[in-house]
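seq as requested:
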Amino acid sequence: MYYRLLAILSFTLLASSLSAQKYLDMIEAGTYPIAAIQQEAKAYFDIVGRGRGSGYKPFKRWEYVALMELDDAGIKITNLELTKRARDYRRAERQQRSALSGFGGEWKQLGPTYSIASSSWSPGLGRITSIGIDQSDFNHLIVGSPTGGVWKSTTGGTSWVPMSD
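struct tokens:
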């Protein structure tokens, strides 16, 4: 009789502890508002405590991220939906970047077409690190070089005038 009573009591306690983490089921379902999950988790942690091994810190980490990923109804957006939104955003960004990058011309080498074979300085060869193109007049260019200064062209690059001398 004693063992039977002990077994029934054990199963009852085990079943109550299994259903006690209702907030985890709510999180997994993905259909509950964050406020309801927070309320259920608070009730659970008021009973269990917030100490080591209680699951409180993992819940708070989840809550922190979930609060940044809410829809209009206060429900966390699913990871699948977040991935879809990120993919759509990157696609739109690529399309916008490609639309802005073309200014109606093609790049072609204008020079220099020669170099002096020496172990040091070669005139006419330099490194351009900055390019600015006027969007209303594509012939107006400004370039910058670490050692050559800033140069300006109003002829589409045919002739250049130093701006930093």
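The radius of gyration is 33 Å.
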